[in-house]
Amino acid sequence: MRWYTRRRSRTVCLSLVVASLSLHLLLTVLSRSIYQNHCDTPSPRQTHLHTLRALVDTNYTSRMSDNHASYAKTPPGTRKVNSSHMDSNGPQKMSEKDAVTTKMAVKVGHGHKEEGPVDSLTMTERVGKFGSMGIKPMGSGMSKLEALFSHPLYNMPTPPIHEDDWLLKVKPKGKARETSTQMWVSDSDIGDDSAHWNRSSDSHPPWLRFHLGISRWQLYPHLDPNMAPLAQQLSTHRIVSAVQKSGGTQLKLVMSFPNYGQAILKPMKQERDEETNFNLYYFSDFERHNAEIAAFHLDRVLGYRRIPPAVGRLVDVVTEIKDITTDHKLARTFFTSPVNNVCFYGQCSYYCSTEHAVCGRPQNLEASLAMMLPDTSLATRRSWRSPWKRSYSRSKLAVWEKDPDYCDTVKKTPPYNKGTRLVDLIDMTILDFLMGNMDRHHYETFDKFGNNTFLLHLDNGRAFGRHSTDEPSILTPLEQCCRIRRSTLLHLRLLSLPQYRLSDVMRDSLSHDPLFSVAPLLSELHLSALDRRLVTVLQTVSRCQERQRSRHGEGDDDVIYDDLCPQCHSS
Ligand SMILES: Nc1ncnc2c1ncn2[C@@H]1O[C@H](COP(=O)(O)OP(=O)(O)OP(=O)(O)O)[C@@H](O)[C@H]1O
Ligand SMILES: [Mn+2]
Question: Which residues are within 8 A (CB) of 442 and not within 5 positions of it... i.e. 6 or more apart?
Fold first, then answer.
């Protein structure tokens, strides 16, 4: 009898699995047709479907290290691509609106005579090409980045966003004071007469549109048309104020623009091909401007959209900082170096001294400008200590380093015992492992959304310090918890296929940053480290699944958190 019942329930389970898979495929087809670009031809669509089917295949194991095996997974008719561009599909054309009309001639190069001329594109021309769909690849075809972003996995239908799922609400017309920051208010300030909100008004400056687009689930939407104007604002708009940002340990500035937008500036501290000194502990490492920029791109490529847009800019330290700053403490730290470069060091608890000054060449300084989040008076944030925080000590080990069953405790502890918090943390772990960031001591969330929201991945300046080694301890949460979102796993598998290879997509994405005209944001060695680390992540997940199978048989999957099937998780 018991045997019969078990057999019956197994049959029911199997039918449910088959039904759910068919539903997913149906959804995929639907989403494809919803988001279909008119330029698309049928063959890539089939390719997408085949790829998706292969990715969903639970027997998938990473074969990235073996290209031939990976190609074997690709369906017939898929073009074998070796360059970073695909030519099978018409690109989504850069709209006229995206094209930048104003030109700002940027003095590229570092003022060093021995550095020859660099890419002739001006910074604004680069910016015009920024943003997921404002990209026109060199050749005639679709870039790998475009191909990736048009894949069904990135275009799954999402549930409608309710009014409560937006971070900010716009004051009704008539009450707002033009161009004032009073135009937008926190949720609690809004009255009953909120019928005329205008979230996507073209008249709003890009930074405001960015703020108004922040939801419970992400900082900005996939294929956000505001991304190009936002990047343009960050990299070209006049800077009217530059003051030091308090808090944190290293020098950073708050820059303000004429339209009231603000950004956080982190200066260049390390050459691209330089590796962090191996004798330095992670907590003594510098922050790198290119790490902030590359982290934003990687986060977007992974489909997370949890890092505020960060863009590179050549800043004139004299006219754009020294001459306009009202921060006397900052102004006092400017000096001219022995080779006539203008330098400053500001005031902070680390590296703010003459020895660690940041210098222009002679006035041009490479920097990252990250879009400022809404002020905390409008949208308070909560800072959470990471359960896998390092000890920040040369001699002490953290608890998680000593206890292999540490995750069992975390899994029982709120907020990790409910909803998506644990898998969100694992998402962050994966991002950090890929970019070698050991400095994730805290993360933040928007208070308004309680525990049911995404995690902000702020402060990525210590990523991309080393390319020749990987830091396995960063992956500990994944190793110990053996849990991952299905959507994340599918994205990672997609990025391990040759036609969407992570390094190629990242090279492509980063080439649209304005500073690419000075030098690529990540060296080739850092790009290939991404591919190598991706293999490690996929292998870790496979190991988890094997371990689970050997313990519990083929039954239900405890490793995969099926976020593509929300009704599967009622808690
Ligand atoms: N884009 C942003 N918008 C608004 N606030 C931000 C943004 N990025 C960072 N912050 C805030 O500024 C604080 C300091 O920034 P950040 O962590 O990058 O500096 P830091 O010097 O590296 O700090 P720490 O030494 O604590 O790691 C963050 O904790 C965060 O609350
Ligand atoms: Mn930091």
Answer: 383, 384, 385, 386, 389
What is the C-alpha to C-alpha distance for residues 557 and 485, in angstroms, rounded to an integer?
Answer: 12
| Contact yes or no for 521/293 (Cβ under 8 A) | yes
3-state secondary structure of 273: coil
Among 286, 266, 427, 276, which Cα is nearest to 356's? 286
Query: pLDDT digit string (tens) for 537-568?
Result: 999 999 999 999 888 877 667 999 999 876 66
Measured distance CA(287)–CA(328) in Å, rounded: 24
Q: Would you say the CB of residue 263 lies under 6 angstroms from ligand 1? A: no
Round to whole Å and give the CA distance between 537 and 542. Answer: 9
Cα–Cα distance, 381 to 448 (Å, whole number): 8
Q: Write out pLDDT tens, residues 108-126.
A: 223 333 333 223 334 444 4
Q: What's the Rg (C-alpha) of the chain?
A: 24
Contacts of 485 (CB under 8 A, 6+ apart): 420, 423, 426, 427, 560, 561, 563
Q: Whose CA is nearest to atom 26 of ligand 1?
A: 248
Active site residues: 439
**Atom number of ligand 1 nearest to Cα 251:** 21
Interface pTM (ipTM) of the complex?
0.97
